[in-house]
Design a protein that fits this description.
This protein is an all-alpha fold and 428 residues long. Helix content is 67%, strand content 1%. The radius of gyration is 22 Å and the shape is globular. The two termini are 33 Å apart.
Length: 428
């Protein structure tokens, strides 16, 4: 009976979340083009100043900014339609006039769309594009440069809040692990690209309450949080580093929970916590995606699945347009992570650092290593690689940003190292 009640509660939370987020997106359609035009035109002109694939560090793929995706974000944001807000939000159209092979032409398409008020002619229905709402709102006050600055300030503020809270909770070792993991993911580039930033803004927003409620053992709130996390991630993300909003808060939470050495509650083992969090996050993420197609079918009065299924089969590499293979996708992402992706010398130094870490852990291994925590960290740390191999076409095409999923792997290695060395104090 309790299980049924719990399931009903999650369904209600899911439906409320979908309704709230969809309402926000649809409401943003009422922001007029005239009110955004000056700043949107400035944004379009600035996008034309560079190519769509800028490497902030020459010869380092991990530093590449996907400004093509930003052109798409801005293009969809420009196509506001207060007269037909429901269908406009579902179609998520933008204007295209270039040759399909000319990605750099996306800059000019955006400029032409804004200058000449061109209507969208290419739908992008398969995603929610929830970030369009804040992009439209911010264009009332600033252009793309200002938005990048706002994103940077927000990212720094949110991660500082998370680190300060971890310090207060005595999670100093975990703080070091999180900082190292963030650096290997090139977190400093993420505010400079609208495609990258949303996941990294969501991570601390989920991690802070997750740690608070874990410490207070308010588990019903924790489970609700992971459900909402999956929903919000699907609403904002462009399939870049989506599972980080699950794995980073979960890894930190498992580590905090593990500090209670006297915890004998078998219902709250690291494995059980992880499985439930993953199920709820997955339900929220996949359910939100499905709801886009269901709602769109109802609003548009047609079956939208043909627009979607082709892209799904391509991303998992089973269509004729698929490229790469699971191993190539895995390899490209693995060699791109910082600092290994900065050149041969850095790759060798990274490998040497891992060997030294393994030797130190072997020599200074604690007397009572808890295998269930080690196994949990290993499994969670391997999930990004499973994702690469399942969605291998996407991971192969877009390794310059999907490599960031390994932030969770690096964090898992760090937490596993802390567990093996037994450097932490376990307090009630």
């Amino acid at each position: 009976m309790n299980t049924i009640r719990e399931a009903i509660k999650y369904v209600v939370i899911f439906l409320i979340s979908v309704a709230v987020l969809a309402t926000i997106l649809i409401a943003s359609e009422f922001i007029s083009k005239d009110s955004m035009k000056e700043n949107m035109l400035s944004s379009a002109e600035k996008m034309c100043e560079n190519t769509v694939g800028i490497e902030m560090m020459d010869g380092v793929p991990a530093s590449k900014l996907d400004r093509y995706a930003d052109d798409v974000w801005l293009g969809i944001a420009w196509q506001t339609d207060g007269e037909h807000p429901l269908s406009s939000a579902m179609w998520s159209s933008y204007y295209v006039n270039r040759d399909p092979s000319d990605e750099n032409g996306a800059n000019q398409d955006l400029l032409e769309a804004v200058k000449d008020d061109k209507d969208g002619n290419l739908q992008y229905l398969r995603y929610w594009h929830g970030a369009v709402a804040p992009i439209r709102f911010l264009h009332l006050f600033t252009d793309i440069s200002g938005i990048y600055i706002i994103c940077a300030i927000a990212l720094i503020g949110l991660f500082l809040a998370l680190l300060i809270m971890m310090w207060r909770y005595g999670m100093k070792g975990e703080m070091v692990c999180l900082v190292i993991a963030s650096l290997t993911a090139g977190i400093w580039f993420t505010p400079l690209c609208l495609e990258y930033i949303w996941v990294f803004l969501i991570i601390p927003c989920i991690s802070v309450p997750a740690l608070i409620w874990c410490k207070k053992e308010k588990w019903s709130r924790v489970w609700m949080l992971f459900l909402v996390s999956g929903i919000v991630t699907n609403f904002f993300d462009f399939l870049t580093a989506e599972i980080l909003t699950l794995l980073i808060p979960l890894l930190l939470m498992v580590s905090l929970h593990g500090r209670k050495e006297s915890n004998k509650d078998e219902k709250k083992t690291p494995a059980r916590i992880s499985v439930k969090a993953c199920i709820l996050w997955g339900f929220g993420y996949l359910g939100m995606w499905a709801m886009k197609w269901i709602i769109a079918s109802v609003i548009l009065g047609e079956n939208v699945m043909p627009y979607v299924t082709g892209h799904i089969t391509q991303r998992v590499g089973v269509s004729e347009d698929g490229i790469g293979n699971p191993l190539s996708a895995l390899y490209l992402n693995l060699i791109t992570i910082f600092p290994a992706g900065m050149g041969d010398i850095w790759a060798v130094l990274s490998l040497v650092a891992l060997v030294i870490l393994a030797c130190v852990l072997y020599v200074y291994k604690g007397n009572s290593v808890r295998k269930r925590y080690i196994i949990t960290y290993i499994v969670l740390g391997l999930l990004p690689y499973i994702r690469y191999m399942v969605v291998f076409d996407h991971s192969f095409r877009h390794f310059v940003f999907t490599y960031r999923l390994q932030m969770a792997t690096v964090l898992a290695i760090g937490l596993m190292s802390l567990e093996i060395r037994k450097r932490r104090l376990y307090n009630e």
